[in-house]
Each structure stands twice: as structure tokens, then as C-alpha cells.
Amino acid sequence: MKPTPLSDLLKPPSLDAKLEALKQYGDLRMPDESEPPILNPPVREALHQLMLELSTPPEELALVGVKARLRGIFDGPPGTGKTTLMHHIAARLGLPMLVVEAANVASKYVNQSAEQVAKLFALAREVDVVLFLDELDALATNRSDNSGSVGQEGNKVVIALLQMLDRHDGMVFAATNRRDIIDPAIWRRFQVQMTVDLPEPEQRFAIVKRYSKPLDIDDETIGRISAVLEGASPALIKNVMESVRRDQIIGPKLKQDMSIVAVFRRIAASSAPADEGDQPPLWARPESALAYLADAPWPPALPKAA
Ligand SMILES: Nc1ncnc2c1ncn2[C@@H]1O[C@H](COP(=O)(O)OP(=O)(O)OP(=O)(O)O)[C@@H](O)[C@H]1O
Ligand SMILES: [Mg+2]
């Protein structure tokens, strides 16, 4: 192997080398403009305002003595679109994003997580990259909950994170579905705090409709499906509607009953919402939910094969 020339050793690491180094902490992605999540009106408006703020010239905001907010946290139940939302923001801004799975940093660098957090931020500062700390609860657990030796490491990480968040001048976003255990000092460091809740009826309808494509399902039927999925997360709705689509192809091959009641009975039997909060009617009261579906226009038209 040829020795590295001294001139190369003295050169500062290239941007590519820094990007490479960042990859040890997570997944470096160039998000593309995929479909945005369907959000309840308050979050949609808050997001709209944030996007406008981020694209407003700094001088304009400086007129009133403020800067655009570069630190944000999304919380809310699992499967409501927090991770998807962050991808959408990075794509709209045209910036690369480092998705840091907090649990990975915590487990990969046992006893050194605090140092690694500092290194991660130092690297991110030199590269224009959005830091996205997904599942932040794995790193920033409330200090009062941290006892024992694991807890001491946890405290060090929280302190390191606090310092880094204060100093960092790039974009840092985070997501959690455990707001209750996030250290409050960390929580306060995020200037934008958005709760991405379960969809309201109108949004639920739109989500059912989006994931019914390319089947052509009547709006009356979409409305009924949406009603029996009340309280379901968008991720669960997506799962159910993918099952509906799959069933339209597989069911006839098995000579199964293709009535809407039979289709949803099969789906209810082969999927179950996570055990948290109230179950949607399809699982909580299956017989009345299926009876409610029975009158809906069905079956949907299949798209023509290409
Ligand atoms: N609001 C939404 N509108 C449309 N699709 C959604 C929405 N929320 C989630 N989905 C779909 O559900 C799947 C899971 O979403 P995502 O991973 O963004 O949820 P999350 O809130 O980050 O969940 P977790 O808390 O478990 O990390 C994705 O495939 C996404 O497309
Ligand atoms: Mg997520």
C-alpha cells in the first residue's frame, strides 16, 4: 500500500468524507417529493406557516427581530405520519436529511452515547443537512426517570443534547410517540412543537380514499369504510386498504365470497390494531360494523391491465 502523501493528510476532510462519516449515525437520504401526509387542519396550517417562514429571506424576519425556527419536534400516536411529514419537509426544502434512529445511537455506543451525540452535531454543522432524530425518546428520557448506571449515561446524553441543541445553527427535527418521557428541558429546546394526532373524520375519509387507489371505490362506500375505521391511525388505514386491494386479486383465485361483508370479515380476522386506546368499530363491534358496510355500493371496478 502506498503511504498517504503528507499534503493529503494536511487537507481538511472533503465534504464527501464528512457525509460518509455522518452515515455511521443513521441513514443519509435525499428525500423526494412523495405524496404529503394528510393532516388535520391545525397541523396543516402550522406546517404551511413553517414552510413559508423557512423560505422567507432572513433580512425580512430580522426587521421584527426574529429568525426562522430551525428546531421542531413532532409527537403523537404511532402511525400518524410523523416520519413521513419530516421526509416531506426535507424534500420541499431540497435538503439531504440524516435520519438518526435514536435507539441505534443508544445501543451502538453504550457508555459513549454522549460523546457520539457531540460528534454527530459537530459533523452535521459542517454539512448542510437536516438532522432528524427519530424516536427521540430512546435518547432523551426524562432525567428524573434515569436511575442506576444506565440512567447516568442517559443523563449525560440529555446534557450533551441540550448543549448541542443550543449551539447548533442548522435544522434539527425530532419525533416521538412518547412525549410523556421526554426530558422537559429537551422538549423546550424545540421551537416548533406539533402534535400529529389521529385523523379527524374528513381526513380519515381522504386517507381511505387515497389508499383505495387504483381501485375505483364509490364515495358512499369510502364513507362507510371510514366510519368503521373510526379511531384508526393512518398507518392502519393504509394497511387495511392495501388488504382490500390485494383481496380483489387473490380472493377470486380462491373462489372466496367477494361481498363487502366477506372481504372486511377476512381483513378484520387477519389484521389487528395495536393494543392502545379504543379499538375502531371494525374490531370492537365487528358484527354491527359489517352490517353497516353491507348496503354500500360494491364491488369496485378493477383498473384495466396495461
Ligand atoms: N397522515 C397520513 N396520511 C397519509 N398516510 C399516512 C399518514 N400517516 C401515516 N401514513 C402512512 O403510514 C405509514 C407509517 O407512517 P409514519 O411512519 O410516518 O408514522 P409515524 O407517525 O412516524 O409512526 P411511529 O410513531 O410509529 O414512528 C407510512 O407508510 C405513511 O405513508
Ligand atoms: Mg416514525
Q: How would you briefly describe this protein structure?
A:
The protein has 306 residues and is an alpha/beta fold.
Tell me what the structure shows:
With 306 residues, this protein is α/β, with parallel strands linked by helices. The chain has helices at 6-10, 15-22, 41-54, 58-62, 82-93, 102-108, 113-126, 148-167, 184-189, 201-212, 219-228, 234-253, 260-270, 281-284, 286-293; strands at residues 27-29, 71-75, 97-101, 130-134, 172-176, 192-195. It is elongated, with a radius of gyration of 24 Å. It is built from 15 helices and six strands. The chain has two domains: 13-195, 3-Layer(aba) Sandwich (Rossmann fold); 201-293. Helix 8 (148-167) links the parallel strand 4 (130-134) and strand 5. Helix 7 (113-126) runs parallel beside helix 8 and helix 13 runs antiparallel to helix 15. Strands 1-3-4-5-2-6 form a six-stranded mixed sheet. The structure holds adenosine-5'-triphosphate and magnesium ion. Residues 37-39, 78-84, 175, 177, 207, 234-235, 238 line the site of adenosine-5'-triphosphate (ATP).
What descriptive keywords fit this protein?
306 residues, alpha/beta, Rossmann fold, 2 domains, 6-stranded mixed beta sheet, 15 helices, 9% strand, elongated, binds adenosine-5'-triphosphate, binds magnesium ion
Taking pLDDT < 50 over at least 5 consecutive residues as the criterion, the unreliable ranges are none
Helix content: 40-55%
CATH level-1 class of the largest domain: Alpha Beta
Number of helices: 15
CATH superfamily annotation of the largest domain: P-loop containing nucleotide triphosphate hydrolases
